[in-house]
Write a structure and sequence with these properties.
The complex is a heterodimer of chains A (154) and B (294). Chain A has 154 residues and is mostly helical. Chain A is built from six helices and no strands. Chain B is mainly alpha-helical and 294 residues long. Chain B is globular. The termini of chain B are far apart. Classes of the chains: A mainly alpha (154), B mainly alpha (294). At the A-B interface, α2 and α6 of A face α10 and α11 of B.
Chain lengths: 154, 294
């Protein structure tokens, strides 16, 4: 019985390791993840310019919103275990992500929901006011995940 | 289901009657209460006086503030007569805000930002009191602070206040315009931004020569950014609309979002301000003395 348990445990460990390896070396996963996050931030920054009234590209918002919505679906996957700042890597991802995985997942999925709503508003000709209001909800979703799960800037 | 299903219109009428009935002039329609609600947001009372993390009742206190001096637990400021401030008079409340003294004359620790609130205008302070009285009472007993020695000796605060409390309502600077003065009032008094963004000396007082220059060890040991218009270390490259948009939405100019405690400040305080007030804050911040650091 004990042997079975040990074998099972070994199997689980091997499975997890394989999963992490499939994603890539931790350094590379982190670099990739930062590109993904940077892409989200880039599109959000572009929408902010429109919402603030600094630029008149209101008809671009739908494209940016779609990019955020599509990219948001990748977020959970780019956080394989063993890629936190506690593991010695140059990242602001806190170990709490994996300690509270369901909370993290829920927070990340909030961005999927809110950005999908922004796509809908922008695609249906919403004005900057309506876009702005939903954009605030998108920002809240970003912050709702960053606040508990991301370390402060060093 | 019984056969007596009320029509939606009927139900709406019932709701309207109940609403009209249950607000006898005092709460929603009293102008000073309305003003108090605005002051309440501008002064950021809720985020500190509510244990948000553990889903505590609003304003019932109990939120832990870890500092280099020990851990403070914010008190209950609901109108509960036993555990909150329901038995206080308006004068008790004004004395707490202006002089950092409790109803029995006990000195408060400056974790309660009375060094900032002391500058609150009379009308704002009284309106805030009127508003707090309309909140739901919560019978939560206060948690005693867990402070390190010697900060645990509360009477020491008498001396501390004699040195560091510059009590009195803010007087407008006649040499500056209205927006700047309003911004200074919001930043330095109601909003008490310096409580986190200005570093403290060994005695826990804000360093006057480092106003808003960032704090290497803010609440919960976290680094708090420099918000002076310093080009490299502060927000010198932010425009006025970058600041107002950030205070409204939490988005930084580069598309990233605020982290840490600032998310609470935005959610419970600055996002509730008027556009004019957010603009006044921006005008003031872009005109304070730039500092490098922290």
């Amino acid at each position: 019985m004990r042997t079975v348990k040990v074998l099972l445990a070994m199997g689980v460990c091997a499975g997890l390791a394989q999963q992490a390896l499939a994603a890539g070396e931790p350094e590379n996963v982190i670099k990739y993840r930062q590109s993904v996050m940077g892409a989200l931030g880039g599109h959000a920054g572009a929408i902010a310019g429109v919402v603030k009234g600094e630029v008149g590209f209101t008809d671009h918002v739908a494209a940016h919103a779609r990019a955020i919505s599509e990219t948001s679906k990748l977020v959970v996957e780019v956080f394989p275990e063993g890629t936190s700042d506690a593991a010695g890597f140059d990242t602001r991802a806190l170990p709490k992500i994996w300690e509270d995985w369901s909370g993290f997942k829920e927070a990340a999925e909030k961005l999927e929901a809110e950005s999908a709503k922004l796509v809908e508003i922008a695609e249906n000709g919403g004005d900057t006011r309506a876009i702005g209001a939903q954009f605030v909800a998108v920002g809240k979703a970003c912050g709702g995940c960053h606040k508990p799960f991301r370390a402060e800037k060093k | 289901m019984s056969g007596r299903v009320r029509s939606p219109r009927w139900r709406a009428a019932t709701v309207a009657v109940i609403v009209a009935w249950s607000s006898p002039g005092s709460a929603a329609s009293d102008p000073s209460v309305e003003r108090g609600a605005y002051v309440f947001h501008a002064a950021g009372c809720l985020a500190c006086h509510t244990d948000l993390k553990n889903k505590g009742a609003p304003l019932a206190g109990g939120r832990a503030l870890a500092t280099p001096y020990g851990t403070f637990y914010t008190p209950n400021i609901t109108p509960d007569p036993e555990h909150g401030i329901g038995a206080w008079s308006e004068d008790d409340f004004l004395r707490a805000l202006r002089r950092g003294l409790g109803p029995e004359g006990q000195p408060y620790y400056p974790a309660f930002p009375y060094t900032a609130y002391t500058g609150m205008s009379d009308a704002d302070a009284r309106a805030l009191w009127a508003y707090l009285k309309t909140r739901a009472p919560a019978p939560r007993r206060n948690t005693p602070h867990a402070l390190d020695f010697p900060y645990s000796i509360r009477p020491l605060m008498v001396a501390w206040k004699a040195i560091f409390l510059d009590a009195g309502v803010r007087v407008a600077d006649a040499g500056r315009d209205e927006a700047w003065n309003r911004g200074a009032y919001l930043v330095n008094h109601l909003g008490h931004c310096g409580e986190c963004h200005t570093p403290r000396n060994a005695l826990g007082a804000l360093k006057p020569g480092r106003h808003l220059a960032g704090n290497p060890s803010g609440p919960d040991g976290k680094k708090v950014p420099n918000i002076t218009p310093h080009e490299r270390d502060g927000i010198g490259d932010w425009s006025e609309s970058d600041i107002t948009f950030f205070l409204k939405t939490g988005f930084l100019p580069d598309g990233d979002v605020a982290g840490g405690l600032m998310t609470d400040v935005i959610e419970y305080s600055t996002s509730h301000l008027s556009d004019d007030d957010r603009a006044a804050i921006a005008v003031y911040l872009l005109n304070v003395e730039p500092h490098a650091g922290p």
